[in-house]
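Write out the 3D structure for:
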Amino acid sequence: MSQDESESRETRLTLPQVKKLLDSIGEENLDQFQRRTLDYVSKFSKITPDKADEVLALLVKDYELDEVEAVQIVNCMPETVDELRVFLAGGRKIIETQKLEKIVSLLAENRTLK
């Protein structure tokens, strides 16, 4: 397999998606690193895996965000427009405040875990 082929298989996952994946393996089957990862994602996930998938898809499709940006937003679930802007600061495009407010509302509606 060439390096290009292996790079094309890379998938970005949100914290809830990682939690779901590790849960499906079963904690008794995880190595020490995977258990630490499961502990971390369990503590820091703020949305269920199913909702994370939905929100991620909406951010990419409806709000035209890059997948990398969308994954980071779902991972952190910012609560204000100013917090959200931090994740979009590296982008080349300017997103209007009204659109940012809609994204914050979407995140608030789907935030299920603290």
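The chain has one domain: 1-114.
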